[in-house]
Each structure stands twice: as C-alpha cells, then as structure tokens.
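Why does residue order matter? Because the sequence determines the fold. Keep that principle in mind as you read this record.
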Amino acid sequence: MSWRNETCGNWSCNNSKSNKKSGFCKNHYEVYKDLIYSGMDHNEADMCVGSDDSHNYPQQCRLSKWSEGEMIKGWNPRDHCNHKMARGIGLCNKHLLMCSRHCHDTNINILEFIDTKESEVNKSVSEAENAHAEKEEVWMRQYAEKRAREEASKREETRKATEKARAREEASKREETRKAAEKERAEWASKREETRKAVEKARFDPPSEYYTDPDGIRVSGGPRVDPEIARKQKERVQELRRVQMKKESDAREMAEVQKRVDREVDLWSQSKDLLTMLRTFNHILPGFPVIQMDCSVKKAYMNALRMVHPDKIDQNASVETKATAQRVFTKLRENKP
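Structure:
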C-alpha cells in the first residue's frame, strides 16, 4: 500500500498523509514545521502534533485578544488574527507562525511562550475591561448628576411660573375688588345726590304772593297758619339743609382723601394674613383700641368688624378716619376666616 493512502499521524485526524517523512497531513505538517522552526526537538514536535486534538473543538484562537500595542517583534500591525484554527495547540495560522519566528529569534520554548503570552493577554484584557467599567461608572454618575440638575432646573422654572401666575391672579383679584369698591362708592354718591335733590325739592318754600299777618291769618283768602307750626317747619328745613350740606362737604372731602387712604390700607394689608392684620389693627387706625388676642381668632375678627362698621363710626370723626375705617372694613371682609 502506498504511504499516501495512509492516514495522518495525528491520532484524531482522518486526513491522508501529505509528507512521508513526518507522517502528517497537510495541515498538521504546517504545524509540525512551525514547531521545528521555533527550535523544538523533532521527537517533541512529533509527539506534540500527534497528540493534539484542538482541531476537533472549534473555538477562537488563544491569542485573538492580543492588542496591537503588545505585538511581538516582526508582527505587522495590519496582520490581525483571522480566527482560523490551525491543526494544533489552539492557535490560528498567523499567530502560530509569528510565535514560531519569535521563539526562533529568541531561543524560547514555543509552548511556554504561548502559555505566558496567553496569561498576559487575559490579564491585559481584564484590566482593560475594569478600566472601561470604571469609566462607564463615572459616565453614568455624571449623567445622573446632569439629569438631577436638569430636573431641579425644571422644578425651579415650574415653581417660578406658578408663582408668577399666582401673582397675576392675585393682582387681577385686587383690581376687581378695587373696581367693585369704586362702583359701590359711585352708587352711594349717586344715591346721596338723589336724596339731596329730593330734599331740596321738598323744602318749605311758601309762595311769594302769600303772606301772613301778625296773628297768623293768611291774606288773600288762604287758610290760617299757626305761627308756631310755621316756625318749627322753618327750623326743621334749615336743620335738614345743614345736615345735607355737611354730608355733601364730607362726600367731597371723602373723595379727596379716599385714594390716599386706599393706598395706605392696601399697603398695610398686603402679604398679611388675618391674624397679623388683627394684631396690627391699631397701627392703621391709631385712635382705635387694640384688638385683644386672648380669645379665638373669629371672636377677635368680629370685634374688629364692629369697630369699623360704617354704622358704628362716630359721625363727628374726621373724614380720613371714616375713609380708613371703611377701607379696613372692606379688607377684613375679604379675609373672612
């Protein structure tokens, strides 16, 4: 039988021999030549190739993770691992050839060199992975901090927008209250004017063509008029005129001081709750007694309302005091507990 019909000298390889001297197939003969070139003894190389069975377990090259920065001498950086397994010791064709050349130049055992290099590669890869994990952790922490800052900024913007909207709403309510108060004052003034005109129209003014004699007898055929009744009627009309003139004078003076008093009272009540307004009641009305706070807030509130009620204010008080009391009464009613 021809030697070419015999199988490879590797115990687990079924390929035919391609070299009579070594007794291996083409693939295993290439591995055998690389081992011999590295400086390994023929018998040792023959035993290593003959007993190797890595070709039966497809896997990556043992040095596939070898980074370009750790290349051995004579390895071109463009010669990357092709992951094609050689027929022996778990290396691809390119890595096996490069290791063989390096061991030939340095006189190092190729098996020991491969084991040492594999452990170095695994250690380097582990360190690189750890460094990458640390960088990723730092990046994630920075990203989380950035997100936290953005969320805090959004919350602050929302808070400011809410405060601004609330301020606009409060300003609108104050404006509506002011307009309602002005409308109410205008209605009161109109009613006073109508009352004054009615009194003027109904005042006692006897016709000029009639006159009375000293005995109270109306001349020209008129009815008899009692002098005492006529005197009382005249005094009553004069009293009504004085009262009406005083009301008109107070109304004019009230209109003059009302705007100034409204600004002062609004400034006093601004940003104050009901309890603070009650405690500082005598600050805006110096002549009024201090509100006693030893009772409930509602009772103190009712006492303050009674003090500044329009019907309870002394009619002889100054116009400024009346205007201030009226404005304070309105503010207290707006802050009802």
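The longest helix spans residues 110-202.
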